[in-house]
Amino acid sequence: MIRVGALGDVLLTRRLTYSLSRAGLRSTLFAPGRHASWLRADPWIEGILDSESPRLAGAFAGEWPGEHGVFDLAVVISRSDGLARAALLAATSIIQVPPEPSRDDISIARQWADAVGGAAAPFAGPLPPLPTGPLGEFGRGATFIHPGSGSPSKNWPLERFIELSQALKVAGHRVILIRGPAEGTFPTAARGFEVFDRPSLGALGATLAGSRLFVGNDSGVSHLAAAAGAPTVTLFGPTSDVVWRPDGHEVVTVRSSTGGMEGMALGEVLEAVERLARLRSSAGR
Which of 122, 185, 278, 280 is the most buried (most CB within 10 A)? Predict the structure, then answer.
C-alpha cells in the first residue's frame, strides 16, 4: 500500500490495512519511514518501504527498483501518475484511491477502507489499539495537553490551552504539557506545569497509551494519541472534524463554529472533556 503523507495521514490508513488483514492480506507500507515505522507494530503489517529512501526515489517517476509483480495488490492513496505506474510494476493489480475526501459525512479513514471494498469488506468497528511497547511510569494517569500542530491556522490560542490546563488542574488532573519541535518557549503562565519536552515518537506513544486524557489540535500527535488508545479530545477549526477525526474508540471532537480557532470558547472544550468522561463512565472504563 502506498501512502506518502504526514504522521496523521499515515496513521489513518490503519482501518484500511486492518480491513485487508481480515481478508487474509498482510500489508507492506510505502510511506515515510519516520512516520510509518510506528505501524510496524501492528501484527497485520508485513514491512515498511521508506518513501524517503534514495533507493526508492524512482518510484515517483514510475520506476520500481525491486522485483516486479511481487505484491498481489497495490493500493495507491495518491493522484500521482508516477506512483501509479510504479505500483503497476510492483503488483499484479492496483486500486488507486483519491487522497482527498469525496464525502463530508464519513471519516476519511472509512472512505479509504470503503474504496477497496472489492478486495476486502471495510471494517466498521473499533480498531485494536496501536501497540506501543512497555508503558513507562512517567505520566501514567496524567492528562497531556499538546498545543501545537503543523499549521498555525489549526492551533487554538496558546493562552486558551493554559487556561484549560489550569481548569483541569483545579479539577484534580495532573497536567503535563507536550512541547514538540514546532513549539517555542511556553509563556510564564505555563511555569506551574510539567513539560514533556520534545519526546521521540516512541516515547510519546508509549506515554500517551497510559494517560488519563489527551487534548490537542488537529495534528499528528492527536492521531497518535487516539491510535494508542488514549481518551482523546481533538479541536478543529478550518478542517472537518467528521472527515479528519482521529480513528480511536475514545475520541470526542470540538469544531469551532466560526471556522477559526479563536472562535472556540474554553467552555466548549471543558464540556467535551466532561462528555468524554461520561461516555467512559457509562462504558465502565
Answer: 122
Are the beta carbons of 144 and 226 closer than 8 angstroms? no
Candidates 133, 103, 131, 130; CA nearest to 115 is 103
The single-letter code of the amino acid at 111 is Q
Residues 183, 186, 190, 194: what is their CA dihedral angle, to the nearest 10 degrees?
60
CA distances from 242 to 108, 186, 215, 234, 236 (A): 8, 31, 17, 11, 10
Q: Are residues 150 and 238 in the same domain?
A: yes
Q: Which residues contact 27 (CB under 8 A, 6 or more apart)?
A: 1, 17, 20, 21, 44, 45, 46
Is the same domain home to 74 and 159?
no
pTM given for the model: 0.94
Is residue 233 within 8 A of residue 273, CB to CB? The reply is yes
Q: Are 178 and 271 in a shared domain? A: yes
Provide mean pLDDT across the span 115-139: 91
User: In sequence order, what DSSP letters do the residues of 266-278 get, joined into one string?
Assistant: HHHHHHHHHHHHH
> Which three three-digit cell numbers place residue 244?
479528519
pLDDT for 182 equals: 73
Q: How confident is the model over 14-41, as a mean pLDDT? A: 94
CA within 13 Å, CB half, 68 = 6
CA distance 193 to 55: 45
pLDDT at 135: 76
